[in-house]
Design brief:
By secondary structure, the chain is of the alpha+beta class. It has nine helices and eleven strands.
Length: 305
């Protein structure tokens, strides 16, 4: 019995101007799809000619390799896509070079040494004679798809790194602008490069903006504990104490007083020494709760004695 081969075809309705590279979001997947299409085309030609091996465009396909794509299949699909992209982006340049004419002055490839390779693809000669690049337009959909895929493949590398990697094989016109757009639209790049929001500073209270004498309105806080030494003997007595800070709300001057503890009696003694030296505040003293042992206190309407 003769073996029968069943081919399943899926019809997908698309727009009239929709091309093949607009249907996929990955450049590597597009290459594999095109490679399978070209493989199917070669197999159909081989079956029509009733031969086991078909050699088309220097690509050889045998019956044992039908399950996997070879390097030559991927390479053939790659040059097929690049050739179509160049025909869409540089139609005038392609016709001029094929007819051995000079490139138009308005061409983006003007001033470059452009030639057609054996793969029927435009090539740009470099300063190194052995190396050539494939010119591509940065505004084409295939170029954007390739740059976006490479940006994700190389773990969201910087634009400089991608330019260096892509520049080994391609000469893309406007590659910097396209990479900037890709970085701005990439979610992971936005999360990594995000800057913290700057909080707006609050308004100063009215007591901080009035022109007043020093310590007219004072704020009080405690600092410490600090260790002090009592006596000038060989073995002085060390004891724990705190610093009481009196801060002028107008001039930001600071007055320090030593307190043995955080008790109310020690604070009143420090406040008495402060008043004798700087003068009693005329309006109020705002006291913050430094520790749980110190209770908030407020003094108002102090009069000089």
């Amino acid at each position: 019995m003769k073996s029968t081969t069943t081919v399943l075809l899926t019809l997908h309705k698309t727009e009239e101007n929709c091309t093949l590279w607009e249907l996929y979001s990955s450049y590597f997947k597009l290459l594999r799809v095109v490679a399978w299409i070209l493989r199917f085309h070669r197999c159909c030609l081989a079956k029509k000619k009733k031969i086991k091996t078909a050699t088309i465009n220097n690509n050889t396909t045998t019956q044992d390799d039908k399950l996997f794509l070879s390097y030559s299949d991927i390479r053939h699909a790659k040059f097929t896509l690049l050739r179509q992209q160049q025909m869409d982006s540089f139609p005038e340049e392609w016709n001029s070079i094929s007819k051995n004419k000079l490139l138009p002055k308005s061409s983006p490839l003007a001033g470059l040494s452009v030639s057609i390779s054996d793969k029927q693809v435009l090539m740009v000669s470099r300063r190194v004679s052995d190396r050539k690049s494939i010119p591509l337009s940065g505004k084409h959909i295939l170029t954007k798809l390739m740059l976006r895929t490479l940006h994700q493949f190389y773990s969201h590398a910087s634009n400089t790194t991608l330019i260096s990697i892509v520049g080994n094989e391609f000469y893309i016109i406007g590659i910097k602008n396209q990479l900037k757009k890709i970085s701005r639209t990439c979610t992971k790049c936005q999360q990594v490069n995000a800057h913290p929001m700057s909080q707006r500073m609050g308004l100063l209270p009215s007591i901080r903006t009035k022109l007043q004498p020093p310590f007219f309105i004072s704020g009080v806080d405690f600092a410490g504990p600090v260790t002090l030494r009592e006596g000038a003997t060989r073995k002085p007595v060390l004891f724990k104490s705190y610093l009481c800070l009196f801060i002028c709300m107008s001039t930001r001057c600071v007055h320090l007083e030593v307190c043995k503890s955080l008790s109310t009696e020690d604070f009143l003694a420090a406040f008495w020494r402060f008043s004798n030296r700087r003068g009693c505040p005329q309006d109020s003293i705002q006291i913050t709760e430094a520790t749980s042992k110190v209770q908030p206190m407020r003094f108002t309407s102090f009069n000089r004695q």
